Amino acid sequence: MVAASSRKRKGKIRWSKLYSFAACFRPLTSKERLAARELICQPGFSRVVFCNEPHLHKRKPYKYPYNYISTTKYNVLTFLPRALFEQFRRVANFYFLLAAIFSLFSLAPFSRASLIAPLVFVVGISMLKEAVEDWHRFLQDLDVNNRTVKTHISNGVFVDKLWKELRVGDVVKVNKGEYFPSDLLLLSSGNEDGVCYVETMNLDGETNLKIKRCLEASLCLNEDEEFSKFKATVHCEDPNSNLYTFVGNIEFEKESYPLSPSQLLLRDSKLRNTDYIYGVVIFSGHDTKAVRNSTRSPSKRSRIERKMDHIIYILFSMLVLVSSFGSLLYLRQDMVDWWYLQLPDDNKVNDLDDSNSEKYDDRFFNPSKPVQSAGLQFIRALILYGYLIPISLYVSIEVVKVLQTMLINKDIELYDDVTCKSVQARTSNLNEELGQVEMILSDKTGTLTCNQMEFRKCSIAGVSYGGDITEVDLAASMRMNADFEPFEFSIDETDGATRSFEPFEFSVSSFSAQNGNARLTKTEGPNWIHGSNLFDITMFFRVMALCHTGIPLEDDNHKMDKLSYEAESPEEVSFLIASQEFGFQFCRRTQSLMVLREFDPSSMKEVEREYKLLNLLEFSSSRKRMSVIVSNEDGQIFLLCKGADSIIFDRLADNGRAYEQATTMHLSSYAEDGLRTLAFAYRTIEAAEYESWNTIFTQAKATIGPEREELLEQASETIEKDLILLGVVAVEDKLQKGVPECIDKLAQAGLKIWLLTGDKRETAINIGFACSLLRQDMKQFHLSLSRDAESNNQVKDMKEDILQQIESSYKMVCEERNKEAPFGLVIDGKALEIALRGDVKDEFLQLAVNCASVICCRVSPKQKALITRLVKQYTGKTTLAIGDGANDVGMIQEADIGVGISGMEGMQAVMASDFSLPQFRFLERLLIVHGHWCYQRISKMVLYFVYKNVAFGLTLFYYELYTSFSGEVLYDDWYMTMFNVMLTSLPVIALGVLEQDVSSDICLQQFPALYQQGPRNVHFSWSRIIGWILNGVVSSLVIFLANIYILSPTAMRENGFVADIDSLGATTYTCIIWTVNCQIALITSHFTWIQHLSIWGSILLWYIFLLVYGALPPNFSGNAFQVLVEGIGPAPLYWMITVLVVVVSLLPYFIHIVIQRSYFPMDDHIIQEMEQCYKKYDVRDNEMWVREQRNSQRSTRIGFSARVDAKILSFNQQLQQKKLSIYRSVTNSPIYRSITTSPFS
Amino acid sequence: MTDTDRGRSRDRESGFMSVILIFLFIGVIFIPVGLVTLRASHSAIAHSLALVVEIVKRYDIGCVPKPFRINKVSYIQDDSIPKNCSLSFKVPKYMKAPIDIYYQLDNYYQNHRRYIKSRSDQQLLRGRKYHDTITCHPVEFSNDQHILPWGDREELKVNRKNIAWKSDWEHKFGKNVYPFNFQNGTVIGGGKLKPRIPLSDQEDLIVWMHTSALPSFQKLYGRIEMDLDVDNVVVVHLMNNYNTFSFGGKKKLVLSTTSWLGGKNDFLGLAYVFIGSSSVTVAVFITLLHLLSPR
């Protein structure tokens, strides 16, 4: 027990020592302190928190909300009014609402039920959907709100309390690995110096841990019992959304101390590497900065749906046109003379007897008030021709989308068996939008990569190890398989870059840096000891094992000879593990000692050596290097340095450049493979030099004030020079499974991919290479602020600087556009901030859009959202944002489609997203297969819907021409109601759910370029829409005219029966049902039994309906009584009309597709045809198939395939050169000359 | 050309063939059907083969005596003047019994909503007592002209039964409803309903109550159960009661035989023939196009 606690104490000491001069610890300068003090109690800084006295916050004026959060849209009370309001904001719904209201006043031509029932149904379904979605949100909130945290109640007793019950002023204890329940003021931590480590990935996406440190005054509060008497008062700023500021002070034991952001622990971040912390709740619930930062997810509508609104407008104006046409004409003056209508006549009004007076209050037909009558008639006509506007379209689309969503969610190919999660479509609104995406904005960490570093290759003393053939080389040579063997040979000889002897024989793939159970198959008695530059190799591993900030974990579960480590970044962990595998095990760290168990080549044994840690020169993004100064047991002082290659190379001594050339070559090949490289170097320091430097350095460390950092940097500068290069290491920021392939397919599908990351530029570029977004022969533009502009801090200068860079880059793009090489753009956060300002952004976006790939690094969550919005606005294209952390939420909400990765922890991104994927790679199938299908389905479905309603609705209008626009309806009410509900709805739903133009395999594997139909919107273009409306007009004309002319005026049966209005109606209606159902059979390209059943079943259903309805007593069936049995059924004419009309009304469309398919085929037509060929002749691997495939890919510029193509090109060039040089050498040889110039020739 | 390329072009070929076959099929089916239809419904093209003979005669103006033709409306509304009139039809061609007698009205909107609203199915089934709502107007104007068809030399037997549907007089028109109080209104069109006969037996009323679909329509009046020979003359005595002059309507009397397709109407047959021959043309056109410029 004693031993354990002492070790714990030691651990604490180490930690505090390590970061002894990290910037965030610097105390506030006096000026800042003053400013903060002045601000307190001013407006905006009025919050008062009584620590440990939450009961004081129950009453005003200090009443703050509980820590309860709610992300739901509605509550029980507001649901009905708000959801109804949302529903009736849709134009069509509003129209139907009006129609339903008019029906109450007997204005409508139809019965009330037939108008109100569908409306209730439509609105009901949509509202139900809203309610279910909101319910899920509520459940998720419930989950979060019901998490527990240890909270102080009294006398130093901590009990579990639900998050939602926390109040401002509560003291809580958070353990390692837990999330903070609200914004806390850090009082003390498990580390003695009050430091704790916080992972803020959910907030800003940065993977590095952040250090927070409590006030010295509250350091002592590190035991439960201490809190029994603890009291303090905090004055601070009001709740706001700024994550990086916090102003306030705390009055504690009659002293006032200023507070800074480094004491504030934010909700949604997580405690790491620290056993526990104590904190007091400052902001709770909706006051927390994380919640304030989150915006309510906007309801998104797909492009097709927005266009559908326009179609509705068109149809509506058609409706108004025909209605007004009718109502202007219907009440002609001479109608008074149509005595049989008994119209009231002014002249005869006096003659009326009482019994008849009731007839004349018919407001529709009152010749004395023509305007009123016409107005009423207009309203009536609006409702009558309402069938032009497909009310059931919305319902059907909702139903179809829900079913589509089910198909997507249930797709077994989208199931990840590692996380046991599947793709979830969280909203069903955007299924078809998935098929129209043109830009993908992707986060890096957690999305493309798994935030794991893996040690892959190294180059020590000019020799590359672990240099296997990269996948690109492999693929390129596979494509050129015939020529592969000679190639490999020749290349190996020419550049030697991939010389692949592996002294350690380590299998690269088999170890992961995270969990420490690396399995590096090192041979006993390493081979490298036989190398010539033994010392350099040893030093290389020492740098690896000593120059870091990690500590070994004392984990009893592990065998003692293999340690696992914890460090600030995963990179360092991977180094430590690798060095352990190579025989340099870092086994202990104390305050000033680092102990290595290293392999001694001379004795061939493992020996334990102690190194005294003299100084540690921090890593920072501006320095891009870190160093340690250590002395070994012999008292020799070394400076061990690791850092970005360019920085290290600048600081090499003249005699330290022995391996520079070879190493540079390796570096570039590593970088090409997307590996992250770091250079290792060292120097020996004389004791005297060290002493003199150390005084300067200590002085600088002791400085307080803004100049401190500068001094430190200068001091470091003076010692980090004259280095001797040892080599470079390459670590792989491990990509998630299938990411490169997925990006490749997406690129082939014509999608542009932008990488937006909060991470460093180098990392971002490396990932760019690893995902083949960048490649070596790509022309890269780097936009960043120059040092001068940055230091000046003048917006104008910065702007000019950026503008100039953009312009010069754009010029280059314009000049070289025709060449093969694509462009890549890399821009960092600061430059981006300038570039996205009003007057620069157009230029910037112009440049960015012209580049094949764009990488934005060090961008804040706000910027991510801003970029997304600007790209969306500027290009007008559909954008998809994909990310996993809370820092991606803005972007996910802003994009047309937001996708969250659900595989990792943290639900914010998923909660904000429209689709959630367990892994990035599923995006491929989601977009290229499901997106494409859904787009096709929905557009076909909408067009067909428009068609069938135009075809049906217009016949009503034509008939009005024959009733002098009196508003009489050709069909029975129930026929009309049945039309959209039963008789034509099922086939169209089947089409919307099951239609496939080509099979998934072909979409995905063979012709991803088919996806381009979506972004180009070929299936829902205005020409198509107009075409279908015209088709509907033609069909309606054919149907109506044929019926009119055939059935009138003579008898339709042998017994002299002349078609009356009911027979005409039933016959016309039969023709319509046949025509629209056969039309859908014509546009369906993928038949299953469901489609057959629904189409032919619908037709059959009509006859059954007519029979049953006609058999009902005349009270119910009215004029449709026995119409089929006694009226039209026995007439051969009826059946002949049906056949004729169906054929004639489908002929125009049929001829159109025959011509189109033969002479102007579209991509899907060709592929369909080829697919049929395939079924017959098995042609998939023949030349033509491959040729078509190749053709469809040609314009790709990023992605793995493009890289392979480029590689093949360069291979070919190399081969050509080789041939040439051989040829030259041969032709230059004297023998050859002697032969050629021989007299015999 | 590789094997599969050939296979593909064979496939293309078969695609074309199927399209051509579809068009040819339509042609082959439609043209004969059209011709049969034309024969059944009387046509100028196949006059000798036609099954249907139709004679139409307009009588509304002809029946107004010359002196009254200046003001036809006042003539027809004047109850004191007898409206008797006789029409003679000359039979152009042998007409086989039964020969249907239709009256035809043009420009008469029986399908006007106001007209349709004014009928009460309840009243027709159960009588005047159901006249209780505003929209249930009684049928105040039965339509008919009293047509009294007489043959030239012998009396033609005109069958006035079985001109309506069985379901109508069984279920829609009351057996116990006598229309004695139906025509109390001011507006009475032509003839009077017979107050002593139940509605279900007044088949001419039932036929009339089958609302016409279009403003120009024929309605069956009765059947002549007797063949008529060429050049026979049929004289019809009728009462020209019904006022069509106010709204510019026309009244016609039609004698017509029917075939299995009903009365005389070329439209269906012509349409079938036209579509059939168009399909054949299109098939030929596509074939030519394919031969001349294969894709």
TrEMBL record, chain A:
Span of domain P-type ATPase C-terminal: 910-1161
Keywords from the UniProt entry: ATP-binding, Magnesium, Membrane, Metal-binding, Nucleotide-binding, Translocase, Transmembrane, Transmembrane helix
Residues spanning the membrane: 91-109, 115-132, 311-331, 378-397, 942-962, 974-994, 1025-1046, 1066-1083, 1095-1112, 1132-1155
Positions with a binding annotation for ATP: D443, K444, T445, E572, F619, K642, R676, T757, G758, D759, R858, K864, N887, D888
Cofactors (names): Mg(2+)
Compartment annotation: Membrane
GO molecular function ontology, one term from the record: ATPase-coupled intramembrane lipid transporter activity
EC number(s) reported in the record: 7.6.2.1
GO biological process, one term: phospholipid translocation
Residue ranges of every copy of the P-type ATPase N-terminal domain listed in the record: 49-115
Protein origin, superkingdom: Eukaryota
Aminoacyl-tRNA synthetase is among the record's keywords: no
The family this protein is said to belong to: Belongs to the cation transport ATPase (P-type) (TC 3.A.3) family. Type IV subfamily.
Name of the protein: Phospholipid-transporting ATPase
Automatic annotation (TrEMBL), chain B:
Record field: transmembrane: 15-38, 267-292
Keywords: Membrane, Transmembrane, Transmembrane helix
Organism domain of life: Eukaryota
One Pfam family per UniProt: CDC50
UniProt-listed InterPro entries: CDC50/LEM3_fam
Subcellular location: Membrane
GO cellular component: endoplasmic reticulum; Golgi apparatus; plasma membrane
Protein family per UniProt: Belongs to the CDC50/LEM3 family.
Protein name (record): ALA-interacting subunit
Organism: Gossypium darwinii (Darwin's cotton)
